[in-house]
Amino acid sequence: MLNKKSVDDINVKGQRVLVRCDFNVPLQDGKITDENRLVAALPTIKKLIADGGKVILCSHLGKPKGEPKPELSLAPVAVRLSELLGQEVKFAADPEVVGPNAKAAVEAMKDGEVILLENTRYRAEETKNGEEFSKELASLCDVFVNDAFGTAHRAHCSNVGVTKFVDTAVVGYLMQKEIDFLGNAVNNPERPFVAILGGAKVSSKISVIENLLEKVDTLIIGGGMAYTFMAGLGEEVGKSLLEEDYKEYAVNMMKKAEEKGVKLLIPVDTVVGDNFSNDCNFKVVGRGEIPADMEGLDIGPKTAELFANAIKGAKTVVWNGPMGCFEMPNFANGTIAIAKAMADLKDATTIIGGGDSAAAANQLGFGDKMSHISTGGGASLEFLEGKELPGVAAANDK
User: Fold this and answer.
1) Do residues 223 and 323 touch, judged by C-beta distance below 8 A?
2) Of the residues 46, 201, 287, 340, which is catalytic?
3) Catalytic annotation on 201?
4) What is the pLDDT of residue 236?
């Protein structure tokens, strides 16, 4: 399906290697509060160092919208990366990214050294895939490595534009892993194949639902989007999240699933509260019994059991989106039940598609029990929709 050249297919000794990483990490007072993305990038960086490449790292951070904002500088990342790699990562502090500091640092590099460029989104052209900035980035390197799955669904200078001006463009280990897991799960799954979709909106998952209905044996719908399905069936959903315009769509999807012999499960009971807070008054109600003045905040215990049983025996499970407001302990039980059911599977491929479900699995302590947790929320969703990702497509084919 996606057979791309990787860092294992090239010789980088003495070559200048530009690596697009995903260092879009949360910062508080200049300190990195979650370094998962830095750790995930290490295998590719270490491989290039060991092979004698001159390693030039680049990434975006936040949304500076084309203006150098000091609080979105990658300087703290260079410091932490130096510690993680056990060698200096020089920081090229050019607000224009490819500036005098970067050029001089690259010029002086020895094999196996590492430098980090400033936030690529300091340049307005970055997100517009402007040719000038793409050429500037390409001028620094002989080889380009894309290891940033988190932005693979966007065609920007630092992941797509640059590839037009270099001969060799390959993927890193992190990108390869995403392609292998997500690509195989969607295109060549071991069966039974169960997909679980949660999160707030049906509208943001339309293409995902449509693509997965063609491929799965069971589709589980939970989280805020479930109320649109319930309302479509004429059930009372009170003050729960609801997309009126998508009720008919939800009903059509249920019909389509039935025609295809796909099991489509929606909640049979709901935990409802009288306001959106952990200490609200809450209770469990059956299907269609949500009081007019209350809102659904999690799937109920019967639903958690129903969903967990549907996951038992699966060989491939893909999960995207929590079952309820998992950030509030009183409404995390549904999401915990899903994570636990996946974690308990033996000999199965379990994949979490980035974003909130990844945060939930990690926070609730199930992260290390999964086969793969995607590093890209939006990118993994587009993968599940069956779309081609520009950042992946731009790499050389094997």
Assistant:
1) yes
2) 201
3) yes
4) 95
